[in-house]
Write a structure and sequence with these properties.
Layout (H helix, E strand, L loop, with lengths): L9 H14 L8 E4 L3 H4 L9 E4 L6 H16 L4 E3 L12 E4 L15 H20 L2 E4 L2 H10 L7 E3 L6 H4 L12 E5 L12 H11 L5 E5 L6 H12 L6 E3 L5 H10 L2 E4 L9 H7 L3 E5 L2 H7 L4 E3 L4 H11 L3 H18 L3 H16 L1
Parallel strand pairs: 1-2, 3-4, 4-5, 5-6, 7-8, 7-10, 8-9, 10-11, 11-12
Helix pairs in contact: 7-12, 10-13
Length: 367
């Protein structure tokens, strides 16, 4: 199991869920390799140290060491199949190779103009990424929309693409779901790591508009970014510039228990993302019975159906007007939350169902 391309966010959650399933079965012998950044996240699983190899990934030069280490590990382990949770992998394995796909920039046009040098280097990297994905024996995506775009825009034959829907992390499913609180300010939870396509920089603009539209509305955005991260620095600076610092709080990186607690305290969940292959935020919001406000895009409508409130992710005024209205409309919130429960059952497998689907793909590739 190759986790080396992972850093943080939903990919780490997917890896943890799969490792949790491996621990409880005896059909597959396994070994996992992961970056040091995942060590703390994996600690609660109490995995046998002999099953794990950690690698350093703190600089671009480390990638060459990782590639060499993966080659040596493959020679030592002689695997029947390799599963890279989300690729592209740093190494071209000789064994049959199953690779998860979650790179929206390969499927959608870039949303920010790039300089000539950046455009050139990005174009070269994109060519290499596409080649890497085409080499895989099987690719796994989380939506039918992504599967269709992957075949069309990366050139992967549809027969090599499998769709396995996202699920709520097993640890979150062990937590109680608390009813919405009517006390205190409206808490708008933004449970996302920082990536440019997440569009989190729009939040200070939205906060400024809400304050202007309804000065009496007591609200606050809660982010889940690293305290020292570039993303939080950008958002904090913009919030200060717009005099809405008191409307945006950063909770820092959260473990799953703390994340579940924040869902239970939230009035609604907001994700202004510009593109996704999938996201755990949608099923998590449905599971915790919180209103979901997200982007009016093909992937979001594919995953959410009628369960979410959709907004133009590039229009902070429209977003603010929508939030200001729906937060004060308990009947509308109730209807969306009830539809979210139905959508969770329709569109998202249970962790066990997802794990079994993943194992089925590994079996078929080995055979």
């Amino acid at each position: 199991m190759d986790c080396t391309p992972l850093r943080y966010g939903g990919g780490v959650q997917v890896a943890i869920a799969f490792l949790s399933g491996l621990v409880g079965q005896s059909e597959f012998e396994w070994h996992a390799v992961a970056p040091q950044q995942m060590r703390e996240a994996l600690r609660p699983l109490q995995l046998d140290a002999g099953k794990l190899t950690f690698v350093s990934k703190t600089s671009p030069a480390d990638i060459f060491k990782i590639r060499k280490g993966l080659r040596a590990l493959e020679a030592q382990q002689q695997p029947d199949v390799v599963f890279t949770v989300f690729g592209p992998s740093y190494h071209n394995f000789s064994a049959p190779h199953v690779v998860g796909f979650a790179l929206p920039n390969l499927l959608y046009p870039r949303f920010r103009p790039l300089g000539i040098r950046r455009r050139l280097t990005t174009g070269i990297f994109d060519i290499l990424r596409r080649r890497s994905f085409r080499r895989a024996d099987r690719l796994v995506v989380e939506t039918a929309t992504a599967a269709e775009l992957l075949a069309k825009r990366v050139g992967v034959h549809p027969s090599k693409i499998e769709v396995v829907g996202n699920s709520v992390n097993p640890r979150l499913l062990q937590l109680a779901v608390l009813p919405l609180s009517s006390e205190g300010p409206f808490r708008i939870l933004v449970p996302s790591a920082y990536y440019p396509h997440k569009n989190l920089e729009i939040i200070p603009d939205v906060a400024e508009y809400i304050a202007g539209i309804d000065p009496e509305l007591d609200f606050q955005f809660f982010l889940t970014l690293g305290e020292e991260s570039e993303g939080w620095s950008i958002i904090r600076g913009k919030a200060k510039q717009k005099a809405v610092e008191d409307k945006i709080t950063n909770l820092g990186n959260l473990n799953l228990d703390a994340l579940g607690a924040q869902y239970n305290q939230a009035s609604c969940v907001f994700l202004p993302t510009l593109r996704e292959i999938s996201t755990a935020v949608y099923p998590e919001a449905f599971y915790f019975r919180r209103l979901l406000i997200t982007s009016d895009t093909d992937f979001a409508r594919d995953l959410c159906g009628d369960a979410a409130v959709f907004v133009n992710p590039r229009d902070p005024k429209e977003i603010a007007e929508t939030i200001a209205v729906v937060l004060k409309d308990p009947n509308r919130m109730k209807l969306n939350i009830e539809e979210g429960q139905r959508q969770l059952a329709r569109k998202f497998p249970s962790p066990h169902e997802k794990f079994e689907a993943q194992l089925s793909i590994l079996r078929s590739v080995v055979q």
